[in-house]
Design a protein that fits this description.
With 215 residues, this protein is α/β, with parallel strands linked by helices. The protein has eight helices and ten strands. Strands 2, 3, 4, 8, 9 and 10 form a six-stranded parallel beta sheet that branches. A two-stranded antiparallel ribbon has the order 1-6. A two-stranded parallel ribbon has the order 5-7. It is globular, with a radius of gyration of 16 Å.
């Protein structure tokens, strides 16, 4: 039986995760001062537009890993992501946890999302995916994107200022940072995101999309 590939970022570092689980994208190799913002779980009809407006203020581009069901419900929000020059990626149709789902059901769910989110980029919800699922996805041409920095904006009982300081301290050139354009994360994320962008803009960083080629 396959051992679940469960990525628990609070327990092991990204560097160790990348060593233990090669073949996944944990950061982007770059010699430039650039960062790679990502947003999971949207689109949301109210929250996603707020994110897009904040990104515009800093001339920042990002990659949105979208849940197919949400794209189906909110096509206007998804179209706005595209029209403003951002990248999108597949986050399954129903936000499935790979280690609790059969390989067939999981891959079928991803393919269903792909009908609405045509992208070679895939991020497993919760970072939970089986090695066999990774192998099949790579055979089908997907790049499985994880993260360097998890903002933990979904932790509603956490101090948002402390969350921000941790994210700022962990972020380096080439980092892939995860925020969430979801109701659960909205309060923390909408506080942290402009502070994050202002901090790294002042340091001369650019914010770019993941293009599906550089790893």
């Amino acid at each position: 039986m396959s051992v679940p590939l469960v990525i628990i970022m609070s327990a092991i570092s990204t560097k160790l995760s990348a060593f233990l689980f090669p073949g996944l994208t944990w950061k982007i190799a770059t010699e430039n001062k650039e960062l790679f913002l990502t947003f999971d779980d949207g689109p949301h009809p109210l929250i996603t537009p707020k994110v897009l407006n904040i990104l515009d203020e800093y001339n920042a581009k990002a990659t949105f890993f979208c849940v197919g069901e949400n794209v189906q419900k909110h096509p206007e929000a998804y179209a706005e992501i595209i029209s403003r020059g951002h990248q999108t990626g597949n986050h399954t149709f129903n936000h499935l946890k790979g280690w609790e789902t059969s390989a067939k059901e999981y891959l079928d769910n991803i393919r269903k999302c792909n009908e609405l989110v045509p992208s070679a980029l895939f991020r497993p919800p919760h970072g939970r995916i089986l090695p066999g699922q990774v192998r099949q996805l790579k055979k089908e041409g997907y790049q499985v994107v994880m993260w360097s920095v998890l903002a933990r904006d979904y932790q509603q009982n956490s101090d948002k200022k402390n969350l921000l300081q941790k994210v700022l301290a962990q972020t380096k050139a080439g980092s892939i940072i995860v925020f969430h354009d979801s109701e659960k994360a909205a309060e923390n994320m909408l506080y942290m995101l402009p502070e994050f962008l202002a901090h790294f803009s002042e340091k001369g960083y650019a914010f770019n999309v993941i293009d599906g080629q550089r790893t």
